[in-house]
Automatic annotation (TrEMBL):
Record's protein name: non-specific serine/threonine protein kinase
EC supergroup of this enzyme: transferase
Name of the encoding gene: LOC109884667
UniProt GO cellular component terms: cytoplasm; nucleus
Domain Protein kinase: 17-279
Names of the cofactor(s): Mg(2+)
This protein's UniProt keywords: Apoptosis, ATP-binding, Kinase, Nucleotide-binding, Phosphoprotein, Serine/threonine-protein kinase, Transferase
Keyword Nucleotide-binding: yes
Reactions it catalyzes: L-threonyl-[protein] + ATP = O-phospho-L-threonyl-[protein] + ADP + H(+); L-seryl-[protein] + ATP = O-phospho-L-seryl-[protein] + ADP + H(+)
Natural source organism: Oncorhynchus kisutch
Length: 365
């Protein structure tokens, strides 16, 4: 364990926390509500399934979990989920985190009756401030998407944004080249698609995609398949469709264009984004434009529901594919066992015949 690393407590988490209902789940993690017995305070317990062997594909490698904990340990910001404790048993690592119970930002926006760009930028600004904190510490999130942008409490005048899920986050080391293919296809930067060196700039691209969806409900690069989506990103194949962006200000489009910039050296940095006139108007005229530009929420709801439906269809087809693979594997295993049994019985038969022949020869000699 590296210096400054959180101690993975080997005690049973249930001895210290009452574990409640499930709040959400991912590929190898389940998040449950919990209460600390000593204080009665509410938290979220994230149960991460550990990979049991080098050859296995199921579960998360321990060093990856250590990296997530290490990064969470270093972060203390109003717009980032707070780390509280960590426990470990034979099968899982359990992260005890701040309870973020206001749901996803986009689900909250879809329920609103009206939304101006000025109100939208109040949420985008909070996302930027959380990312600014990370980037100032050379931490890239690498998985910024609507599902990881939550509200602490939605029943207040201006809900507070919380960035969650640091499973892919990395500290960008100076002079060390870092390449990887990961993240959600819809939100990944061209440099991830093209397997080029990665840095903090990849998060800025994701913010561009998130802002595009926030203003329209539509997703700029989402294709029918994962391959289509990645091809659209590589080809920079997106536009501001008049149907979705007829009421969008040029300031907002300029903000998105400067984030969805293929050349990462020309892409807005986090400080540039915070200083952009759409986020921080330079004069009363720009502030007024932002106030008068409204988001077509009917369009947003329709497009966002369509996007969610597409994603759920993909998840269902992925589950079906995995089920078929597992079934096929089980069938192959059963077939191998049958072959082995028939092979064994053939061997037994052969041995029996040999014994009989030997017996006959010894009787006639």
């Amino acid at each position: 364990m590296t210096a400054g690393m959180a101690l993975f407590k080997q005690q049973t988490v249930e001895d210290f926390y009452v574990i409640g209902e499930e709040l959400g789940s991912g590929q190898f993690a389940i998040v449950k509500r919990c209460w600390e017995k000593s204080t009665g305070l509410e938290f979220a317990a994230k149960f991460i399934k550990k990979r049991q062997s080098r050859s296995s594909r199921r579960g998360v490698r321990r060093e990856e979990i250590e990296r997530e904990v290490n990064i969470l340990q270093q972060t203390q910001h109003a717009n980032i989920v707070t780390f509280h404790d960590v426990y470990e048993n034979l099968t899982d690592v359990v992260l005890v985190l701040e309870l973020v119970s206001g749901g996803e930002l986009f689900d909250f926006l879809a329920q609103k009756e009206s939304l101006s760009e000025e109100e939208a930028t109040q949420f985008i600004k909070q996302i930027l401030e959380g990312v600014h904190y990370l980037h100032s510490r050379k931490i890239a999130h690498f998985d910024l998407k609507p599902e990881n942008i939550m509200l602490l409490d939605k029943n207040v005048p201006l809900p507070r944004i919380k960035l969650i899920d640091f499973g892919l986050a990395h500290k960008i080391e100076a002079g060390a080249e870092f390449k990887n293919i990961f993240g959600t296809p819809e939100f990944v930067a061209p440099e991830i698609v093209n397997y080029e060196p990665l840095g903090l700039e990849a998060d800025m691209w994701s913010i561009g995609v998130i802002t595009y969806i926030l203003l329209s409900g539509a997703s700029p690069f989402l294709g029918e398949t994962k391959q289509d989506t990645l091809a659209n990103i590589s080809a920079m194949n997106y536009e501001f469709d008049e149907e979705f962006f007829c009421r969008t200000s040029e300031l907002a489009k300029s903000f998105i264009r400067q984030l969805l910039e293929r050349d990462k050296m020309k892409r807005l940095t986090i400080q540039d984004a915070l200083d952009h006139p759409w986020i921080k108007p330079l004069n009363p005229c720009q502030a007024l434009v932002r106030r008068l530009s409204v988001i077509n929420l009917e369009n947003f709801r329709r497009q966002y529901a369509r996007r969610r439906w597409k994603m759920s269809i993909r998840i269902v087809s992925l589950c079906n594919h995995l089920t078929r693979m597992m079934r096929k594997g089980q069938e192959q295993q059963q077939q191998q066992q049958q072959d082995q049994r028939s092979c064994d019985s053939d061997n037994e038969e052969e041995t029996r015949k040999t014994r009989l022949q030997t017996r006959k020869r010894s009787n006639t000699s």
